[in-house]
Specification:
The complex is a heterodimer. By secondary structure, chain A is α/β, with parallel strands linked by helices. Helices cover about 35% and strands about 25% of the residues of chain A. Chain B is an alpha/beta fold. The chains are: A alpha/beta, B alpha/beta. The interface of A and B includes residues 32, 153, 268 and 274 of A.
């Protein structure tokens, strides 16, 4: 990280992208290579600290947007005695969208695959106690399809690879409801993602990966038993994922989480089943995050 | 109407729930698609709500309206994509599901479609590819597509809602410089895009990319991006990515540099002759660089202006273009130019006054003698001038024959020249034999030189005999 503390630069100064390190001109709003917002780097320079990137990953429709939006909102509300300061108004957009939609009993719209449509949050987070360590956390809300495309065919979305390479920790969301219903899809997708991360982050094949990975069993309200013992749930229902984590990762933990307390269902004009969140009852949202922070 | 049959690979990109996952991805494709091509299609295809269509607005929504794109793929093939909405997003989270049918063309196929992706897009619509297939087989077959090589009939119908000519010129200028340009157009993005694209030389189009009716995304930054956007966010994001931006609905277009090519295309836009514009710009030029384009435009300009040029100017222009061209396409256009000038000269030589026609004789004779190409091109004109002379001033016609007799045209055309001279002499003889003594008198001095140049020619003898002064007969006492 540059030791520059001033954000005033002479004309023609190039600034590296925080995610992929491509040099960009000062007036670029997005990185010309990976399309991450250049505001991240400008904030990072003004903080004069290396930010920690915590990446939330998972399959399409697993609940990444709702989880991340809710997490940021809870941090803003000083949940678990956390103090968080959004760096830049753009950081608030995600939680704003999620909470507004949930309040009107709707889920937020699907995250678009176009990278420049993703929400990025840059928060300064610390515990509300003296001399508590301050973390500058960067968390993008990525489209599950983009993650799937990158995992299936690396370099389709280079920003994802760059993000994971730079990540200090990750939260992998897995659809617990689907897994509990017997679908192998969540297990396989998570397995692919962890294999992809292993390929990117592992320096030597025989060494276990130390990057902390919190496996979040999302939509756990559909299968409350996973709150009792997430590890056991994973060993039973996500066995392939469990085995890989056990073999290749030294810092991993399983958590159950849910945001809505009850769902109603309807259909739209195309006969698609539309779920309506009846009330917000976040459970297990902060814990995986706190665990990742503790391992940084 | 020209029609060709192409067979090409295809891929469908949309959001479906399947056994292998859900969300936006290539849900079906033919086997010929390469991994790197799939990557590019995945990256560049529109996803959730990314089209400038508003199906929720029942009053303004036109279900026949589609969005389109074309872009080069890694490996050299091109993707032509047709997008529309396919109902609501299947997870029930709101928003419209984007559906894109992609065809993959080789460079040769693109060239055979006159380098015009809109021919392919129209063919895709005719083949029903704008109707979403939401349960496609995972493996699609190769498509056999009949492509009509005719520009859209809608192009001619420019209405006030369409971009002004200066806006089109701005967009075209950016395309020609291979810069990225985003245009906010009120509607009819496909027609506007085709108008702009037709102004780009054919082979150059294969190096560029275009999106019409797709919302702006920096990751999908095509060279030409036409969209409908009432917000200011697009402008900020586009200019932040060093793309040009123009509001085609409002502000006046910034000035564009003086360019013969831009002027040529602009004139044809104004005329609305899309087939002719396409004919002119869609040739397989070997060099479509700025200098070549200016040269080509000047030639086309001369072809169009021939009717308004003076006779001597026409000859001067023709004289500049007898040199052979290395590029066969340039040769073809120069041939068109020379044929056009020749046609115009022949028309005018028949109707112009003799003094005006006579002004062309000296430069024409120079070209007639200069080269093989010059001789071949000038011969009908020489004959036309001679006929005009014979009608208006036979003595001058005699002088022309003397000029033709005296000036050699080189060995390769010597026989042709002799035959021409004899033909002209024959016409002169016929005229002389029917003319009165009074009409003959001015001819005498002119044809006298035939004694020196064609002493043995029977036609010369006949002419000389007819032109010889008659000895007065003395009256006998």
């Amino acid at each position: 990280m540059s030791s520059t503390t001033s954000t005033t630069f002479p004309a023609g100064t190039m600034v590296p992208c925080l995610i992929c390190e491509t040099q960009n001109t000062l007036d670029s709003s997005l990185c010309t290579s990976c399309y991450a917002p250049m505001a991240l780097m400008q904030e990072a320079i003004s903080q004069d600290r290396d930010p920690c990137i915590v990446t939330v990953i998972g399959d399409s429709n697993v609940g990444k947007t709702v989880f991340l939006g809710m997490l940021l909102d809870m941090l803003s509300k000083r949940a678990e005695d956390f103090d968080s300061v959004p760096k830049g108004a753009y950081s608030v957009n995600l939680q704003h969208s999620v909470i507004t939609h949930l309040s009107s009993r709707q889920f937020p719209p699907k995250t678009a695959m176009e990278v420049d449509q993703w929400h990025w949050a840059y928060y300064q987070v610390s515990k509300r106690k003296k001399k508590a360590q301050i973390y500058d956390l960067v968390m993008p809300d990525m489209a599950g399809e983009a993650i799937a495309a990158e995992v299936a065919s690396p370099k389709t979305f280079t920003v994802i690879r760059s993000l994971l390479e730079k990540s200090s920790g990750a939260m992998l969301l897995v659809d617990a409801a689907l897994a509990a219903a017997g679908s192998p899809q969540p297990d396989f997708f998570a397995l692919k993602l962890m294999t992809y991360m292993d390929g990117i982050l592992a320096s030597r094949r025989e060494e276990k990966l130390s990057t902390p990975v919190a496996v979040v069993l999302s939509k756990a309200d559909h299968c409350p038993e996973c709150f009792d013992n997430p590890r056991l749930f994973a060993q039973t229902n996500l066995n392939r994922l469990w085995n890989l984590c056990d073999t290749r990762f030294s810092n991993f933990e399983f958590f159950a989480a849910s945001v809505v307390g009850g769902l109603g269902y309807g259909t739209d004009e195309y006969e698609n089943v539309v779920p309506y969140p009846l009330h917000i009852a976040p459970r297990g949202i902060i814990e995986p995050y706190e665990w990742v922070l503790s391992k940084l | 109407m020209n029609e060709i049959l192409i067979n090409c690979d295809q891929a469908i990109f949309t959001s479906l729930r399947g056994t292998m996952g859900e969300g936006y991805r290539i849900v079906a494709c033919s086997k010929g698609l390469k991994p790197e091509e799939k990557q590019a299609i995945t990256r560049l295809s529109p996803s959730q709500d990314a089209l400038c269509l508003s199906p929720s607005d029942e009053k303004t929504f036109d279900p026949s309206k589609v969005c389109a794109a074309y872009y080069p793929l890694p490996g050299g093939r091109l993707c032509v994509a047709l997008s529309c909405y396919a109902g609501a997003e299947h997870t029930g989270r709101g928003g419209h599901r984007a559906y894109t049918h992609n065809l993959i063309l080789t460079e040769e196929q693109f060239a055979s479609c006159a380098y015009n992706p809109f021919h392919v897009i129209r063919a895709m619509i005719s083949a029903g590819m704008n109707t979403p297939q939401l349960s496609p087989p995972q493996n699609l077959s190769v498509v056999d597509l009949r492509v009509k090589l005719a520009t859209s009939g809608n192009l001619g119908k420019r209405d006030p809602g369409m971009c002004s000519i200066p806006v089109l010129r701005f967009l075209l200028n950016a395309m020609l410089a291979s810069r990225h340009v985003v245009g906010n157009v009120a509607a009819r993005w496909l027609e506007t895009a085709e108008m702009v694209l037709l102004g780009v030389p054919g082979p150059m189009r294969a190096q560029l990319s275009m999106g019409a009716g797709l919302k702006f995304s920096v990751g999908r930054s095509h060279h030409l991006q036409l969209l409908q956007d009432a917000t200011t966010g697009t402008k900020t994001r586009a200019t932040g990515q060093h793309s040009d931006y123009i509001d085609g609905c409002g502000a006046a277009a910034p000035a564009t540099p003086a360019s013969a090519w831009l002027t040529l295309v602009e004139r044809m836009w104004n005329q609305g002759d899309w087939a002719y514009l396409s004919h002119r710009t869609s040739k397989p030029f070997q060099d479509a660089g700025p200098e070549s384009r200016e040269r080509l435009a000047r030639w086309y300009q001369c072809i169009d202006d021939a009717a308004n040029m003076e006779l001597t100017k026409l000859l001067a222009v023709a004289a500049e273009h007898f040199a052979p061209r290395k590029d066969p396409i340039e040769g073809e256009i120069v041939g068109e130019l020379l044929a056009g000038i020749q046609r115009e000269l022949l028309r005018r030589l028949n109707v112009e006054t003799w003094p005006n026609v006579f002004k062309t004789w000296s430069p024409l004779l120079a070209q007639w003698r200069r080269s093989d190409v010059g001789f071949t091109w000038s011969t009908p004109l020489v004959e036309a001038v001679f006929r005009s002379a014979l009608r208006n001033d036979p003595a001058a016609a005699g002088a022309l024959v003397m000029d033709m007799t005296r000036h050699s045209t080189g060995e390769s055309h010597e026989q042709d020249r002799r035959e021409m001279v004899e033909g002209a002499l024959m016409q002169l003889v016929k005229w002389a034999e029917g003319a009165s003594d009074e009409q003959i008198t001015p001819m005498r001095r002119v044809v006298d030189s035939l004694r020196t140049h064609r002493p043995a020619c029977p036609l010369s003898k006949r002419l000389l005999e007819r032109c010889a002064p008659k000895t007065p007969v003395m009256a006998r006492r």
